[in-house]
Amino acid sequence: MSNDRLAALSAAGVSIWLDDLSRERLTSGNLVELIDEKHVVGVTTNPTIFAGALSDGAAYDEQVRELAARDADVDSAIREITVADVQQACDVFAGVWERTNGVDGRVSLEVDPRLAHDTEKTVAQALDLWKAVDRPNLLVKIPATEAGLPAITRVTAEGISVNVTLIFSVERYKAVMDAYLTGLEQAVENGQDLAAIHSVGSFFVSRVDSEIDSRLAATGGDEALALRGKAAVANSRLAYAAYRDAFSGARWDALKSKGAHAQRPLWASTGVKNPDYPDTLYVSELVVDNTVNTMPEKTLEAFADHGEVTGDQVTDTAGAAQQVFTDLEGVGIDLDDVYLALENEGVQKFEKSWTELQETVRSQLDAAK
Protein backbone atom coordinates (compact mmCIF):
# COMPACT_ATOMS: atom_id res chain seq x y z
CA MET A 1 0.00 0.00 0.00
CA SER A 2 1.30 3.46 -0.91
CA ASN A 3 2.45 5.70 1.93
CA ASP A 4 0.38 8.90 2.26
CA ARG A 5 3.19 11.08 3.67
CA LEU A 6 5.58 10.10 0.92
CA ALA A 7 2.78 10.51 -1.63
CA ALA A 8 2.32 14.08 -0.40
CA LEU A 9 6.06 14.73 -0.68
CA SER A 10 6.08 13.40 -4.22
CA ALA A 11 2.99 15.44 -5.11
CA ALA A 12 4.83 18.56 -3.90
CA GLY A 13 7.34 18.03 -6.72
CA VAL A 14 10.07 16.28 -4.74
CA SER A 15 11.53 13.21 -6.42
CA ILE A 16 12.27 10.65 -3.70
CA TRP A 17 15.50 8.78 -4.32
CA LEU A 18 17.08 6.14 -2.10
CA ASP A 19 20.68 6.73 -1.04
CA ASP A 20 21.58 3.05 -0.98
CA LEU A 21 21.99 0.00 -3.19
CA SER A 22 23.02 -3.61 -2.64
CA ARG A 23 22.73 -6.96 -4.39
CA GLU A 24 20.49 -8.13 -1.56
CA ARG A 25 18.14 -5.19 -2.07
CA LEU A 26 17.94 -6.07 -5.76
CA THR A 27 17.52 -9.84 -5.54
CA SER A 28 15.06 -9.79 -2.64
CA GLY A 29 12.61 -7.55 -4.47
CA ASN A 30 13.02 -4.83 -1.84
CA LEU A 31 13.83 -2.15 -4.40
CA VAL A 32 10.68 -2.94 -6.37
CA GLU A 33 8.74 -2.78 -3.11
CA LEU A 34 10.15 0.69 -2.34
CA ILE A 35 9.12 1.88 -5.80
CA ASP A 36 5.61 0.51 -5.37
CA GLU A 37 5.01 1.47 -1.74
CA LYS A 38 7.40 4.31 -0.84
CA HIS A 39 7.36 6.40 -4.03
CA VAL A 40 11.08 5.85 -4.60
CA VAL A 41 11.95 6.93 -8.15
CA GLY A 42 15.75 6.77 -8.18
CA VAL A 43 18.89 5.56 -6.45
CA THR A 44 22.24 7.11 -5.56
CA THR A 45 25.35 5.15 -4.70
CA ASN A 46 28.84 6.00 -3.51
CA PRO A 47 31.97 4.07 -2.46
CA THR A 48 30.80 4.00 1.17
CA ILE A 49 27.52 2.34 0.17
CA PHE A 50 29.25 -0.33 -1.91
CA ALA A 51 31.85 -0.98 0.81
CA GLY A 52 29.01 -1.65 3.25
CA ALA A 53 27.06 -3.81 0.80
CA LEU A 54 30.02 -6.04 -0.03
CA SER A 55 31.00 -6.60 3.57
CA ASP A 56 27.49 -7.67 4.55
CA GLY A 57 26.06 -11.07 3.68
CA ALA A 58 26.63 -13.60 0.93
CA ALA A 59 24.82 -11.95 -1.99
CA TYR A 60 28.05 -11.36 -3.92
CA ASP A 61 29.65 -14.78 -3.28
CA GLU A 62 28.80 -16.33 -6.64
CA GLN A 63 30.16 -13.40 -8.64
CA VAL A 64 33.28 -13.20 -6.46
CA ARG A 65 33.97 -16.90 -7.06
CA GLU A 66 33.63 -16.38 -10.81
CA LEU A 67 35.98 -13.37 -10.69
CA ALA A 68 38.50 -15.30 -8.61
CA ALA A 69 38.39 -18.22 -11.05
CA ARG A 70 39.61 -15.97 -13.86
CA ASP A 71 42.13 -14.24 -11.60
CA ALA A 72 40.55 -10.78 -11.84
CA ASP A 73 42.49 -7.98 -10.13
CA VAL A 74 40.85 -6.02 -7.33
CA ASP A 75 39.96 -2.84 -9.23
CA SER A 76 38.48 -4.70 -12.21
CA ALA A 77 36.51 -6.90 -9.79
CA ILE A 78 35.10 -3.80 -8.08
CA ARG A 79 34.17 -2.39 -11.48
CA GLU A 80 32.36 -5.56 -12.56
CA ILE A 81 30.52 -5.95 -9.25
CA THR A 82 29.34 -2.34 -9.05
CA VAL A 83 28.44 -2.16 -12.74
CA ALA A 84 26.35 -5.33 -12.38
CA ASP A 85 24.40 -3.84 -9.46
CA VAL A 86 23.86 -0.55 -11.26
CA GLN A 87 22.77 -2.25 -14.49
CA GLN A 88 20.21 -4.31 -12.59
CA ALA A 89 18.96 -1.24 -10.71
CA CYS A 90 18.68 0.68 -14.00
CA ASP A 91 16.55 -2.15 -15.36
CA VAL A 92 14.34 -2.11 -12.26
CA PHE A 93 13.79 1.63 -12.74
CA ALA A 94 13.27 1.42 -16.52
CA GLY A 95 9.51 1.80 -16.16
CA VAL A 96 9.87 4.90 -13.99
CA TRP A 97 12.40 6.33 -16.44
CA GLU A 98 9.99 5.85 -19.34
CA ARG A 99 6.96 7.13 -17.43
CA THR A 100 8.78 10.35 -16.41
CA ASN A 101 10.41 10.89 -19.82
CA GLY A 102 13.86 10.38 -18.35
CA VAL A 103 13.52 12.81 -15.45
CA ASP A 104 13.48 10.06 -12.81
CA GLY A 105 14.21 6.35 -12.78
CA ARG A 106 17.86 7.32 -12.45
CA VAL A 107 20.72 5.34 -10.89
CA SER A 108 24.02 7.04 -10.03
CA LEU A 109 27.49 5.48 -10.16
CA GLU A 110 30.56 7.41 -9.04
CA VAL A 111 33.95 7.68 -10.68
CA ASP A 112 36.87 6.45 -8.57
CA PRO A 113 37.24 9.10 -5.80
CA ARG A 114 41.03 8.89 -6.10
CA LEU A 115 40.62 10.76 -9.39
CA ALA A 116 38.85 13.74 -7.79
CA HIS A 117 41.73 16.11 -8.54
CA ASP A 118 42.56 14.77 -12.02
CA THR A 119 40.38 16.12 -14.83
CA GLU A 120 41.68 13.90 -17.63
CA LYS A 121 41.34 10.63 -15.71
CA THR A 122 37.90 11.62 -14.42
CA VAL A 123 36.69 12.25 -17.98
CA ALA A 124 38.20 8.99 -19.22
CA GLN A 125 36.60 6.94 -16.45
CA ALA A 126 33.22 8.67 -16.83
CA LEU A 127 33.21 7.69 -20.51
CA ASP A 128 34.24 4.14 -19.60
CA LEU A 129 31.49 3.80 -16.97
CA TRP A 130 28.87 5.11 -19.39
CA LYS A 131 29.87 2.48 -21.94
CA ALA A 132 30.21 -0.31 -19.37
CA VAL A 133 26.78 0.20 -17.78
CA ASP A 134 25.18 0.89 -21.16
CA ARG A 135 21.86 2.10 -19.77
CA PRO A 136 20.21 5.42 -20.72
CA ASN A 137 19.04 6.03 -17.14
CA LEU A 138 22.54 6.02 -15.65
CA LEU A 139 23.94 9.16 -14.03
CA VAL A 140 27.74 9.25 -13.77
CA LYS A 141 28.80 10.95 -10.54
CA ILE A 142 31.61 13.49 -10.79
CA PRO A 143 32.80 15.50 -7.76
CA ALA A 144 32.51 19.29 -7.76
CA THR A 145 36.22 19.80 -7.14
CA GLU A 146 38.19 22.38 -9.15
CA ALA A 147 39.38 19.52 -11.37
CA GLY A 148 35.85 18.16 -11.58
CA LEU A 149 34.37 21.32 -13.10
CA PRO A 150 35.96 21.00 -16.57
CA ALA A 151 35.23 17.27 -16.45
CA ILE A 152 31.52 18.04 -16.01
CA THR A 153 31.60 20.21 -19.13
CA ARG A 154 33.46 17.69 -21.25
CA VAL A 155 31.38 14.68 -20.20
CA THR A 156 28.11 16.57 -20.70
CA ALA A 157 29.33 17.64 -24.16
CA GLU A 158 29.60 13.93 -25.03
CA GLY A 159 25.90 13.46 -24.30
CA ILE A 160 26.39 11.80 -20.92
CA SER A 161 24.06 12.52 -17.99
CA VAL A 162 25.95 13.60 -14.87
CA ASN A 163 25.25 13.74 -11.14
CA VAL A 164 27.62 16.34 -9.70
CA THR A 165 28.46 15.37 -6.13
CA LEU A 166 30.13 16.94 -3.08
CA ILE A 167 28.74 20.46 -3.55
CA PHE A 168 28.86 22.41 -0.29
CA SER A 169 28.90 26.13 -1.14
CA VAL A 170 26.60 28.26 -3.26
CA GLU A 171 29.60 29.74 -5.08
CA ARG A 172 30.82 26.29 -6.13
CA TYR A 173 27.26 25.35 -7.07
CA LYS A 174 27.14 28.35 -9.43
CA ALA A 175 30.37 27.12 -11.03
CA VAL A 176 28.84 23.64 -11.38
CA MET A 177 25.76 24.98 -13.14
CA ASP A 178 27.95 27.08 -15.43
CA ALA A 179 30.03 23.98 -16.25
CA TYR A 180 26.84 22.10 -17.12
CA LEU A 181 25.51 24.93 -19.30
CA THR A 182 28.85 25.15 -21.11
CA GLY A 183 28.70 21.39 -21.61
CA LEU A 184 25.25 21.70 -23.15
CA GLU A 185 26.49 24.43 -25.50
CA GLN A 186 29.35 22.18 -26.57
CA ALA A 187 26.93 19.27 -26.93
CA VAL A 188 25.00 21.33 -29.49
CA GLU A 189 28.23 21.83 -31.44
CA ASN A 190 28.88 18.08 -31.20
CA GLY A 191 25.48 17.27 -32.67
CA GLN A 192 24.17 15.69 -29.45
CA ASP A 193 20.45 15.42 -28.68
CA LEU A 194 20.04 17.79 -25.73
CA ALA A 195 16.72 16.21 -24.79
CA ALA A 196 18.59 13.00 -23.90
CA ILE A 197 20.91 14.75 -21.43
CA HIS A 198 19.83 15.10 -17.80
CA SER A 199 21.75 16.22 -14.74
CA VAL A 200 21.43 16.81 -11.02
CA GLY A 201 23.61 18.89 -8.71
CA SER A 202 24.01 17.10 -5.37
CA PHE A 203 24.07 19.81 -2.73
CA PHE A 204 25.14 18.37 0.63
CA VAL A 205 23.06 19.36 3.62
CA SER A 206 23.65 17.77 7.04
CA ARG A 207 27.45 17.92 6.88
CA VAL A 208 27.20 21.72 6.72
CA ASP A 209 25.38 21.82 10.05
CA SER A 210 27.79 19.31 11.59
CA GLU A 211 30.83 21.41 10.66
CA ILE A 212 29.37 24.82 11.47
CA ASP A 213 27.66 23.65 14.68
CA SER A 214 30.98 22.35 16.02
CA ARG A 215 32.60 25.71 15.30
CA LEU A 216 29.71 27.56 16.94
CA ALA A 217 30.06 25.38 20.04
CA ALA A 218 33.78 26.17 20.14
CA THR A 219 33.03 29.89 19.76
CA GLY A 220 30.51 29.82 22.60
CA GLY A 221 28.18 32.56 23.75
CA ASP A 222 24.42 32.88 23.38
CA GLU A 223 24.56 34.57 19.99
CA ALA A 224 26.69 31.83 18.44
CA LEU A 225 24.85 28.95 20.07
CA ALA A 226 21.49 30.30 18.88
CA LEU A 227 22.66 29.79 15.29
CA ARG A 228 23.17 26.04 15.61
CA GLY A 229 21.09 23.95 13.23
CA LYS A 230 20.31 26.84 10.89
CA ALA A 231 23.17 26.88 8.38
CA ALA A 232 22.42 23.76 6.35
CA VAL A 233 18.82 24.61 5.47
CA ALA A 234 19.71 28.27 4.82
CA ASN A 235 22.60 27.21 2.58
CA SER A 236 20.31 24.92 0.59
CA ARG A 237 17.68 27.63 0.21
CA LEU A 238 20.30 30.02 -1.17
CA ALA A 239 21.41 27.27 -3.53
CA TYR A 240 17.86 26.97 -4.83
CA ALA A 241 17.74 30.72 -5.48
CA ALA A 242 21.00 30.38 -7.44
CA TYR A 243 19.47 27.52 -9.43
CA ARG A 244 16.46 29.68 -10.32
CA ASP A 245 18.81 32.43 -11.52
CA ALA A 246 21.07 30.10 -13.53
CA PHE A 247 18.21 28.52 -15.42
CA SER A 248 16.54 31.71 -16.59
CA GLY A 249 17.53 34.40 -19.05
CA ALA A 250 18.82 34.43 -22.60
CA ARG A 251 21.58 31.83 -22.22
CA TRP A 252 19.23 29.24 -20.78
CA ASP A 253 16.36 30.11 -23.11
CA ALA A 254 18.58 29.39 -26.13
CA LEU A 255 19.43 25.93 -24.78
CA LYS A 256 15.89 25.19 -23.62
CA SER A 257 14.60 25.93 -27.12
CA LYS A 258 16.87 23.12 -28.34
CA GLY A 259 15.39 20.64 -25.85
CA ALA A 260 17.78 21.07 -22.91
CA HIS A 261 16.80 20.13 -19.36
CA ALA A 262 17.73 22.23 -16.33
CA GLN A 263 20.12 20.60 -13.88
CA ARG A 264 17.85 19.82 -10.93
CA PRO A 265 18.99 20.49 -7.36
CA LEU A 266 19.41 17.25 -5.42
CA TRP A 267 19.49 17.48 -1.64
CA ALA A 268 22.11 14.97 -0.48
CA SER A 269 23.38 14.04 2.97
CA THR A 270 19.84 14.44 4.31
CA GLY A 271 20.17 11.98 7.17
CA VAL A 272 20.12 14.00 10.40
CA LYS A 273 23.35 13.54 12.36
CA ASN A 274 22.43 15.53 15.48
CA PRO A 275 19.87 13.68 17.65
CA ASP A 276 18.66 17.03 19.01
CA TYR A 277 17.16 17.86 15.60
CA PRO A 278 14.00 16.32 14.10
CA ASP A 279 14.97 13.27 12.06
CA THR A 280 13.07 14.55 9.03
CA LEU A 281 14.49 18.10 9.21
CA TYR A 282 16.38 18.04 5.91
CA VAL A 283 13.39 16.70 4.03
CA SER A 284 10.48 18.72 5.44
CA GLU A 285 12.38 22.04 5.41
CA LEU A 286 13.52 21.66 1.79
CA VAL A 287 10.23 20.86 0.06
CA VAL A 288 10.05 22.64 -3.28
CA ASP A 289 8.98 21.68 -6.78
CA ASN A 290 11.41 20.15 -9.28
CA THR A 291 13.99 18.95 -6.77
CA VAL A 292 15.33 15.58 -5.67
CA ASN A 293 15.87 14.41 -2.10
CA THR A 294 18.02 11.31 -1.82
CA MET A 295 17.55 9.68 1.57
CA PRO A 296 19.17 6.87 3.49
CA GLU A 297 16.57 4.24 4.30
CA LYS A 298 16.36 5.35 7.94
CA THR A 299 15.33 8.86 6.86
CA LEU A 300 12.90 7.50 4.28
CA GLU A 301 11.22 5.35 6.94
CA ALA A 302 11.13 8.26 9.40
CA PHE A 303 9.39 10.50 6.88
CA ALA A 304 6.96 7.73 5.96
CA ASP A 305 6.09 7.45 9.65
CA HIS A 306 5.84 11.09 10.77
CA GLY A 307 7.11 13.47 8.08
CA GLU A 308 5.08 16.56 7.28
CA VAL A 309 4.57 18.39 4.01
CA THR A 310 3.26 21.91 4.51
CA GLY A 311 3.82 23.37 1.07
CA ASP A 312 6.80 25.05 -0.55
CA GLN A 313 9.46 25.73 2.09
CA VAL A 314 12.14 27.19 -0.18
CA THR A 315 10.91 29.69 -2.78
CA ASP A 316 11.33 33.33 -1.70
CA THR A 317 13.34 32.42 1.41
CA ALA A 318 16.70 33.75 0.18
CA GLY A 319 16.55 36.95 2.23
CA ALA A 320 16.07 35.17 5.54
CA ALA A 321 18.63 32.55 4.53
CA GLN A 322 21.22 35.20 3.72
CA GLN A 323 20.68 36.74 7.15
CA VAL A 324 21.73 33.45 8.76
CA PHE A 325 25.09 33.69 6.98
CA THR A 326 25.49 37.35 7.86
CA ASP A 327 24.95 36.35 11.49
CA LEU A 328 27.41 33.45 11.21
CA GLU A 329 30.10 35.75 9.88
CA GLY A 330 29.21 38.17 12.66
CA VAL A 331 30.20 35.62 15.31
CA GLY A 332 33.44 34.83 13.51
CA ILE A 333 32.63 31.77 11.39
CA ASP A 334 35.00 31.61 8.39
CA LEU A 335 32.66 30.21 5.76
CA ASP A 336 35.31 29.79 3.05
CA ASP A 337 37.29 27.64 5.46
CA VAL A 338 34.17 25.64 6.31
CA TYR A 339 33.49 24.79 2.66
CA LEU A 340 37.13 23.93 1.95
CA ALA A 341 37.23 21.64 4.98
CA LEU A 342 33.98 19.94 3.94
CA GLU A 343 35.15 19.34 0.37
CA ASN A 344 38.50 17.92 1.51
CA GLU A 345 36.78 15.75 4.10
CA GLY A 346 34.20 14.58 1.55
CA VAL A 347 36.85 13.43 -0.92
CA GLN A 348 38.90 11.81 1.85
CA LYS A 349 35.87 9.91 3.19
CA PHE A 350 35.14 8.44 -0.23
CA GLU A 351 38.83 7.62 -0.77
CA LYS A 352 38.86 5.82 2.60
CA SER A 353 35.72 3.91 1.63
CA TRP A 354 37.32 2.96 -1.68
CA THR A 355 40.33 1.58 0.20
CA GLU A 356 37.97 -0.40 2.46
CA LEU A 357 36.14 -1.64 -0.64
CA GLN A 358 39.44 -2.78 -2.15
CA GLU A 359 40.40 -4.58 1.06
CA THR A 360 37.02 -6.31 1.29
CA VAL A 361 37.09 -7.46 -2.33
CA ARG A 362 40.74 -8.52 -2.09
CA SER A 363 40.03 -10.71 0.94
CA GLN A 364 36.93 -12.18 -0.72
CA LEU A 365 38.84 -12.97 -3.91
CA ASP A 366 41.63 -14.61 -1.90
CA ALA A 367 39.13 -16.68 0.10
CA ALA A 368 37.41 -17.84 -3.10
CA LYS A 369 40.61 -19.13 -4.74
From TrEMBL:
What Gene Ontology molecular function terms does this protein carry?
transaldolase activity
- Keyword Transmembrane carried by entry: no
Q: Does this UniProt record's set of keywords contain Lyase?
A: no
Q: What EC number(s) are associated with this protein in UniProt?
A: 2.2.1.2
State its location(s).
Cytoplasm
Per the UniProt entry, what are the Gene Ontology biological process annotations, in alphabetical order? carbohydrate metabolic process; pentose-phosphate shunt
List the SUPFAM superfamilies hit by this protein, alphabetically.
Answer: Aldolase
Reactions this protein catalyses: D-sedoheptulose 7-phosphate + D-glyceraldehyde 3-phosphate = D-erythrose 4-phosphate + beta-D-fructose 6-phosphate
Q: Where do the catalytic residues lie?
A: 141
Top enzyme class, one word, equals transferase
Alphabetical UniProt keywords: Cytoplasm, Pentose shunt, Schiff base, Transferase
Name the pathway it acts in.
Answer: Carbohydrate degradation; pentose phosphate pathway; D-glyceraldehyde 3-phosphate and beta-D-fructose 6-phosphate from D-ribose 5-phosphate and D-xylulose 5-phosphate (non-oxidative stage): step 2/3
Extract the InterPro entries matched here: Aldolase_TIM (IPR013785), TAL/FSA (IPR001585), Transaldolase_2 (IPR004732), Transaldolase_AS (IPR018225)
Give the family, as the similarity comment puts it: Belongs to the transaldolase family. Type 2 subfamily.
Protein name per Swiss-Prot or TrEMBL: Transaldolase
Taxonomic lineage is: Bacteria, Bacillati, Actinomycetota, Actinomycetes, Pseudonocardiales
